[in-house]
Amino acid sequence: MRVAADHPSQAPVAVADVRAVVAAARGRHRRRHILIVVAALAVAVALALAALSFGAAAVTPDRVLAVLFGGGERLDRFVVLELRVPRILAALLVGAGFALAGAVFQSTLRNPLASPDILGIAQGASLGAVWAILGLGAGGAVVAGFAFGGALVVALVIWLAAWRQGLHGIRFVLVGVGMSYVCGSTVAWLLARSDVRQAQTALHWTVGSVADVRGPELAVLAIGVAVGAAAIAVMSRVLPALALGDDHAAGLGVRTDVARLALLVLAVAVVAVATSVAGPIAFVALIAPAVARRLVGGGDAALAASTCVGAVLVLGADVAGQFALPGFTAPVGIVTGVIGAPYLLWLLARTERTSRA
Amino acid sequence: MSARPVDLPTAPPATGLAAEGLVLGYDGRRVIDGLDVAIPPGRITVIVGPNACGKSTLLRGLARLHPLERGRVTLDGADVTRMPRRDVARRIGVLPQSSIAPDGVRVADLVGRGRYPHQGWFGRHSSDDDEVVAEALAATGVADLADRPIEELSGGQRQRVWIAMVLAQKTDIVLLDEPTTFLDVTHQLDLLDLLTSLNRERGTTVVMVLHELNLAARYADHLVVMSAGSIVAEGAPGAVLTSELVHRAFGLSARVIPDPVSGSPMVVPIGRFHSGELG
User: Fold this and answer.
1) Is the Cα dihedral B66, B70, B71, B72 positive or negative?
2) CA–CA separation, A11 vs A76, rounded Å?
3) Is A22 helix (H, G, I), strand (E, B) or coil?
4) For chain A, how long is the longest CA-to-CA vector?
């Protein structure tokens, strides 16, 4: 039997029946989104508990729990609370921030390649932060502010150079990739020119790391990501309309330019805060939203799921970087790079195919 | 037959959509330079004209999809640009020329997005919205596709789904930019019948740009013929569509005969090789 006849059947359709189908579909979709978020959070908690007990000074899970509930021995307390908790929180927050920003970029620009790490926004933030630290000797929120400035400048350059040619084109992605190299090279040059002898610091600003995040930075990160996420959540109401394209969105009463600009500036701010703490961790903003959208399905921008998947991704990558190979540790950005590069190549190949089709 | 905009049987409407002194263009190139039009409420208005005559631009101007360089678009006499966008979106629905759905989106979800102007900042979809979406799906004959992803549908079905989305917006005016493009002739008629039944049953004011002159003449209550950025004639198709007008607007030699099915004027183009046969 042909279900979907091209010609509508003349038999009258009971609106109440259709309504039940519509409501059921909506409920199913929402439950699926919630399920993905809850599952990702569960994985994040499990990873965090594992990360708390692994390491040079092994702390068994029961002792970890004792510390978390306010007890435990002094050494355990120091190792867990001073060394490991900040790193884990930083990984989760940075991952959440990058992924949320990526989801906002990709959905508002309607392009799966348009993510702040590919477009060089994160590298611009990195440049701003390095300049503030090495050039001005600044720290804390000032560094985050400079990172925001650097990220905004890159966004502006991309907009001037290529935005007007159309948001779907590969062209503005290429301009972004170029900007990312310019910023990355400048960071390397600044690091080489100054007296930074520690490879760790250089690595931090070129590939990204959450290894040595401390209290004040963590506070800036937590507040920045939380405020940005809240603002994006309020604005995100326009996303389902915006995802239909500018004409449809305008027809539905959305001020498309204003809405897109506001969402992108918020996303740039979140990227800047995350980068100012952890450096430009590669590919998280690109991959996490793609994974989340795939899991949630239904053409949803999947902001909440993206955020949780990103947190899991960065924490998982950080844990893997520390413990996957015995006697060798890699900063989180190396691990995400190893995962992300093949995905990017696949995405480019696929985009190329569809644009020719 | 009058060459200028003909007088409507009744006085120009104080209600509904109208434009005066409209100037529209792209990057400084003026496509429409000082145009007045009044859309008769509760009727089907079809805008026709040769390629690049500005018919789509006019529709986009009326729909707020194109910025006005000068002039104003009014809704019940009030300037549309001064009204809150959401209020306008509750009165005027728009189907642009090309619509691309997000990957993986399902029919019911897509149609539900038409509820946007009716939803508050925190009020997401309510059961009232479900009701409206169900009505729109039923009215457009795609109720049995509610749970299907858009990319699985045929072109004709997709276009119906997009129209369902515009219907879910619950506006009394619907503007459509070449809604029959990409459809074969069967689905073109299907779609125009659907729009006609919406107009007849709900009193929805329909304004659309069409390419196909004979379909335009058959389905329009009010025909607007454009050429080179201005209106060369408007009125009931039977009153305005003459061979002289077709020649003036399209540069086409044609005979206009009564459509054997509907009695509306039918344009039979002549061309270079067949003029002799018709004498």
Assistant:
1) positive
2) 73
3) helix
4) 80
Residue-wise pLDDT for B82-102, tens only, equals 999 999 999 999 999 888 888
Distance from CA of B174 to the nearest CA of A (A): 10
Three-state DSSP class for residue A204? helix
- Angle at which helices A303-323 and A215-235 cross, to 10°: 150
Residue A45 to residue A158: CA distance in whole angstroms: 38
Flag if A15 and B135 touch (Cβ within 8 Å): yes
- In chain A, what are the domains? 87-356 (1.10.3470.10)
C-alpha to C-alpha distance for B173 and B162, rounded to whole angstroms:
15
Tokens 């965090």 locate to A48
Q: Are A280 and A295 in contact (CB under 8 A)?
A: no
Q: Is B133 on the interface with A (CB under 8 A)?
A: yes
Interface size A-B, in CB pairs within 8 Å, comes to: 143
CB contact under 8 A, A4 and B145: yes
- Give yes or no for residue B6 having a pLDDT over 60: no
| Mean pLDDT to the nearest integer, A109-114 | 86
Q: Are B184 and B131 in contact (CB under 8 A)?
A: no
CB A232, CB A307: distance < 8 Å? no
The conformation of residue B40, written as its DSSP 8-state character, comes to: P
Helices (H) and strands (E) in chain B, counts: 10, 12
Close Cβ partners of B99 (under 8 Å, ≥ 6 residues apart): A244, A245, A248, B158, B162
Q: What is the mean pLDDT of chain B?
A: 88
How many residues are present in chain A? 357
| pLDDT tens string A254-265 | 998 899 889 999
Torsion of CA A140, A141, A142, A147, to 10 degrees: 100
**Could you identify the residue written with the tokens 């430009």?**
A280
ipTM here:
0.88
H or E segment to which residue B85 belongs: helix B85-89
Residue A350 touches partner B, C-beta closer than 8 Å: no
> B3 CB contacts (<8 Å, ≥6 apart)?
B232, B233, B245, B248
- Separation of alpha carbons B127 and A23, rounded Å: 7
Q: What is the pLDDT confidence band of residue A329, given thresholds at 50, 70 and 90? A: confident
Q: Tell me what the mean pLDDT of segment A39-51 comes to.
A: 93
Show residues of chain A in contact with B106, CB under 8 Å. Answer: 25, 29, 298-299
The Cα–Cα gap between A280 and B230 comes to 55
To 5 degrees, how large is the angle CA A46–CA A51–CA A57?
A: 145
Instruction: Supply φ then ψ for residue B129, to 5 degrees.
Output: -60, -40
pTM of the model as a whole: 0.87
Task: Assess contact for A188 and A206: CB atoms under 8 A.
Answer: yes
Length of chain B: 279
B268 pLDDT above the threshold of 80: yes
Average pLDDT, chain A: 85
Q: Residues 6 or more apart from B125 whose CB is under 8 A from it? A: A26, B112, B115, B119
